[in-house]
Amino acid sequence: MPDAWEYTLYIPHDPRAVAISRRTLRDILTTHTLPALLEPAELLASELLTNALLHTTGPAALKLRQSGHSFRLGAWDTDPTPPKATTPTETGTSGRGLHLVEAYADDWGWFTVNGTDGKYIWCELGTETKPD
């Protein structure tokens, strides 16, 4: 069974932080020899962090955790409002974030942090090779 590990990357309220977080995520997954998770984890982290920065005015954080055969990533932001999936339009550039999380993640959820200190949205990806 793989060793457990956890990282937290605190980011400022700056749209450039999403790209920096993706590169950091890529380095962490490469270091821990999880290449199959690179693309889905980058997509999910980008969506969660972008939403955190779009819908709040405060800082955010990306949290990564490997435990057993499960990889969890999540984004914390300063707004305790529950996440809400919207119906994207055909030509719109927003509204797809939670739909992508539902499509790519094995599981996902959210909870408020300390009542009004924001929320944490998480999703999980399995790390075991699945038979065809």
Give a description of the structure.
This protein has helices spanning 16-31, 38-54, 97-104; strands at residues 5-11, 60-67, 70-77, 107-112, 119-126. The chain has 132 residues and is of the alpha+beta class. A 5-stranded antiparallel beta sheet has the order 1-2-3-5-4, covered by helices on one side. The protein starts with a strand and ends in a 6-residue tail after the last strand. Strand 4 (107-112) and strand 5 form a beta hairpin. It is globular. The model has no long low-confidence stretch (mean pLDDT 87). The protein has one domain (5-126): Heat Shock Protein 90 (2-Layer Sandwich), CATH 3.30.565.10.
Question: What brief labels describe this structure?
Answer:
nucleotide-binding; Heat Shock Protein 90; 3 helices; alpha+beta; 132 residues; Anti-sigma-factor_SerPK; ATP-binding; 28% strand
What's the name of the CATH homologous superfamily?
Histidine kinase-like ATPase, C-terminal domain
How much helix, percentage-wise, in residues? 25-40%
| Average pLDDT metric | 87
Order of helices and strands: EHHEEHEE
Structural class determined from secondary elements: alpha+beta
CATH first level? Alpha Beta
Basic shape: globular
Radius of gyration, CA atoms, in whole angstroms: 15 Å
- What number of domains? 1
What is the helix tally? 3
Query: What's the CATH topology name?
Result: Heat Shock Protein 90
> How large is the share of residues in beta strands?
25-35%
> Major sheet, described briefly?
5 strands, antiparallel
Keywords: ATP-binding, Kinase, Nucleotide-binding, Serine/threonine-protein kinase, Transferase
Domain Histidine kinase/HSP90-like ATPase: 11-108
GO molecular function: ATP binding; protein serine/threonine kinase activity
Region (Disordered): 74-94
